[in-house]
Structure formats: C-alpha cells, structure tokens
Amino acid sequence: MPPRASNIPIPGSHRKIWPDSRHADAVSGTDDIHLTAWLRPKRGGAIDLQRVEALGSEPPLERAYAARGILADETGADPADVALLRAYCESFGLTIGQSHWRSVVVNGSLERLIQAFGATVAIFEDDGGRRFRHRSEALHAPPEVSAVLLGVFGLHQWPRSRRIPALNRHATPLQARDVAARYDFPESDGRGQTIAVLQMRGMFQTSDFDQCMKAQGLAPEPPIVKAVDGATVAHAKATLKDLEATLDVQIIASLVPAARIVVYEAPNDERGFLDAVRKAVFDEELAPSVLSISYGWPEHLWTPAALDILNDLLAVAALAGVSVFCSSGDNGAELDYDGKPHVLAPASSSFAMGCGATVIGDDASQEQAWENTGGGFSERFGIPGWQDRTAAAAQHYEMAPGRGVPDVAAQQSPGYYVVMDGTELAMGGTSAVAPVWSALAARINQRLGAPIGFFLPILYRQFAPPVTGAVVGGGNGRFNAGEGWNPCTGLGVPIGKAIERALRAPR
C-alpha cells in the first residue's frame, strides 16, 4: 500500500532489493505478528563514540566500566517518544508491547503494520527457490513520528538457511589442546566467565556436545539457551545454521570448559539480530563479558539505520566491558551483486573485532590467508583513530578509505574438532575463528580478574616483541596478506600470552 501523502520517508530505512531475487507473490494474512521499532536516544543520551575509543586505549586494569542498568537509563529512549509512537500505533489498531532501551515491540496484523509504516512488502523468491517476505524502498510515517523513529524491523525476512549436505571428516582437525598450544594461550579454564553466543535459528544437540567434550577429556556444563523474540528452533532438516550453532558452542567449551556459555537464540532476520545483540549486551542477570557472533551480511544488505543501531549497541558493549568478536565472512571479498568488494557487518563496526581465517600449510609453522576469508574496507564506517594504518592499504588497492576488516585471524584449515549428528568433523571458516578469540578473551579475563572489554586500540599499537603472528602469504581473490595490517588476516594470528602481557601492562 502506498504511503499517505502527508507521510515522509523515515531516514535510514531504505532497503535495496535482495540480490538474485524477484517478486513472487503478494503478502497476505490477518494473524498478528510482532515487530520491533527502534527510537532515537533521549536528549543527552547519544553514545560518545570518542569516549569509547579512549576507553579502549586504557589498560583494562585501570578502567571503570559502566553498569548495564545505568547505561540503559542514561542512553535509552525518551518516554515521551514512546508515548508518541504508542498513540500513533493505536490509531491503526496496533498495540505497543515491552520496551527495552531504545526498542519497542509493536503488535498487529501484517496488513495494518504495512499501512501504518508505509511499507512496500511482498513475497520474493531467490535463485535457489527459497521464498521469503521482502521489504524494499523506505518506510514512511508522519513528520513528527519520522523524527523519533529510526526504523521498524521484522517485516523483512532473510532467506532461510540451506540444508547441509552429508557430513564426513575431510581432514584431521586440531583439538582444543592443539589450538591452545599453537597460539600460546595462557593457562586458564575460563572459570567465572560468561560468554554470550549469538545464534540465528540454529540448533545444537546436547548429545553431540557431550560426545565432543568427552573425546577431549572434558566435562563442561551444557550451554544455557535464552530465546529472543519468541524464537523457535525446532525443525526437521539440519541446516547450515545448526552446524554453526554446533561448532560455536563446542569450540568455546573445549577451550574454556569452566566458563558459562549463554546462547541467545533469535529469529533469522534483521529484527532478531538487533534484538539478540541488545539482549546480550544489557543482560544484567548473566552479565556476559564476551560476545561471539559468527554471522554477518554485507553492509549493503542492511538498512543504514540498522548499521547505526548495531554500532551503538557494540559501543555500549565496550562501555560495559564486553569484548565482541565477529566473523569476517566466508565469501572472500564478497564480490557479489555488483562485482565490487564488500565487507560484512557487524564485523565492520569499529567496536567489533573482525576475525579472518588462515590455512596451515605443509610447513606447520606457517599460515597463509584462506582464499575465502572475508576482508576489505567498510563503505559505512570511517577509519577509527587507532586504525590509521589502513588508509595506506586502501590507497594501494585503489579503494575508498574506510574501517579495515578483519582485525585478526586464526586457522580454519585443517579445522577444529566438532561433532554433529554423532559424526566427527574438521570444521573451519571465519565462523570458527570468532569463538577461538572469544575463548582467549575469557582466559585473559579470568587471569586478570577484570574484563578486557574493547581492546582493539591497544592491539594496534606497535609491540616488541609482537602480540600477533604476521601472515604474509595468500589472499582472498581481491586482497593479499602481507606484513603489518592487511585486509585478509588483519594483524595476524594470536600470541595469547603476549596479548595478556600487553593488556596487563600499565599505560
């Protein structure tokens, strides 16, 4: 339904057509659905991003982190804006549910939600035959509502995950003790630490988890699962999301068996992603100090407003002392819809640690960039002050300067020991690297007795001896590895004990 003549576009809500997909059918349905509306911060509640960068430069033992509840109160939405949205929604027969920080749940029929927010929605189908609800163009609202509303999420759904093929081991993987030894992890089991894991409709089996741990002589507690937005994960056929869920929890638990793992299980859409990150960051009950995210989409597939919300959420995580690790993607330089390189969000946020991948060659002491590791330069986020060395790299590749991705890397081949459906596997990809770095952070947190939080500015300092191992060979189809920072493996692979010493040292 076209927007009313008096309505205006909501800034940042424009969405492009999903690549390689086309209109298949009109939407229909009178059943109530749930969306999440995100509002602007209250007056004086905007995140001071320079303050966050400065915090990341301070030694962790000298930092003062903010309490989650205080952050929520100081930087949340204005109650008057919530009331304005409520009145507007009620005029369409919609209802307002729970409010969290800057987000509000909106309930009502699909037809009325489309009408209220002037949305263009249809059923699309991609080249693989997957059908999904697709929102394109911008959202619309009256000027006074558009002024307070950043976006409404949940009308657009991402295509469902593909089924996984038959599983078999294709290599001899590294077990946890091998990974810890290779990257010189400090001795620790993660006791007292809570690691959050974001999952998008992926399901792990407790029997697989137990088998993987038993084979490595470990007996950790099984992960806790917290549903977000009423997510349901039961489904008959195993998908790539299930494989993702399996490797995330097994890699983390094998490296820090005494840590508590909390899986935030969300629907597979933009709404679920944002709400899951928000729930993990503001979770006062379980209070994770590390967040592992093995998912991402190229920046152009997010709405601009969603990227801004993500960046603010990860900045809040930094203020609360939460380290965030995100995979940089498994499609090389993402030469997709336009033949140009792209990077994935949320790895492109300045407050996430982007994780690339390497392969161990015949000479086991050397690693090269994996040909499919994601990397490049953000089109949305500028170069942060602590990453100024990426400007020269962008110039070298004749790219516009932007936040460089990834920051670090670790091996994806021969892979990590994982069990799924009772089958022992060697799993890799950048999805496996984010959990490895998350486990390292938890080990260091335990040893320091304080969260290391956001520490990229410290990691980018010049250290002698170094805190990361350089990766100088290989490439991802558009960029090459090399000395210093590079858009394939970032600063390189971890030297765990050296990183701990750098984070422990006074300024």
Explain this structure:
This protein is of the alpha/beta class and 507 residues long. Helices cover 28% and strands 23% of the residues. Strands 10, 11, 12, 13, 15, 17, 18, 21 and 25 form a nine-stranded mixed beta sheet that branches. Strands 4-5-3-9 form a four-stranded antiparallel beta sheet, sandwiched between helices. β11 (224-227), α8 and β12 form a beta-alpha-beta unit. It is globular and about 65 Å long. The termini are far apart.
Which key phrases capture this entry?
507 residues; alpha/beta; globular
Note the overall shape: globular
Mean pLDDT: 93
- Tell me the Rg in angstroms: 22 Å
Helix content: 25-40%
Number of helical stretches of at least 4 residues: 14
Number of DSSP strand runs? 26
Distance between the termini: 59 Å
Main beta sheet = 9 strands, mixed
Tell me the structural class. Answer: alpha/beta
The poorly predicted ranges are: none
Beta-strand residue percentage = 15-25%
How is this structure best summarized?
The chain is of the alpha/beta class. Helices cover 28% and strands 23% of the residues. The chain is globular.
